[in-house]
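ok so for the tutorial part 2 we go from a plain amino acid sequence to predicted structure tokens. step 1 is just haveing the sequence, like this:
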Amino acid sequence: MFRHTQKLQFEARPEKPDPAYAHKLQELVGGAYGEMSVMMQYLFQGWNTRIQGKYKDLIMDTATEEIGHVEMLATMIARLLEGAPATATTKMATSDPAVGAVLGGMDPQQAVIAGGAALPADSNGYPWNGRYAIASGNLLADFYANVAAEAQSRLQTARLYNMTDDPGVKDMLKFNLARDTVHQNQWLAAIEQLREDGLENVVVPGGFEDVEYREHAQTIWHLSDGAETELGLWGSGPTPDGDHEFSVLRSPEPLGDLAVPPPPDPKLYATYDGSRGEPKGPVLGTETGLKGKIKDAMTPDE
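step 2 — the prediction. this is what the tokens look like for a chain of 302 residues:
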């Protein structure tokens, strides 16, 4: 059950209209790292959490907060568009050739589709996509993804903070920056908590330590022409999971065979010289062997 409080979590009131900035602010609403993404990411992570208690509570608290962040931004965008006629949009665009070329003022869909309000889309007008949200069921994998999402969100918020002189917009973004800070820290703390509770370690997923080829679980393959790979913490010493020792393999050799695909089914019409023989079985829905012969016999010639 969710309940909605009509008051915003923090004030979202610009000093004056700014349709071009409203266009930019759409990135924090419906971009890949916008508030809609973390909102849906955390909601599904919470709903999919298999253990009750502190982890689920933290995820759902944060997910519900993010719903409020979407509302804050949508309100700010609507207010930035309020009273901004087409003449103001044109002036805003033509005052800066770069802005005029890239933005041209407000997103037309903000007016045509949303009636002068926010859209569930990014700053290019591309609709928000459910594939942006990550909810794997593995809390360690999800918390890593959450740290990255909050880092990217804070980065974009910081950039947008420097793109406006409006004190009202800056005031809201100062709050958003602070919340992104605490959210990064809480997910980092949650990762440590998973380890303390013995639920996860460092590498996702755990439990394959005796299955994987151990000799390949600790070497950094030097495959570029850079000369300083070994200078980082990954160049030598214990790995973060405490189960391996880092080393750099200076001249790695390929361990596999030639990267040649198998013979193609003739019915796929791939260019082929016959050098690798005939196909061994059905490919992509086509049939060979006895079934194929029967099917061919039953198919009338064209």
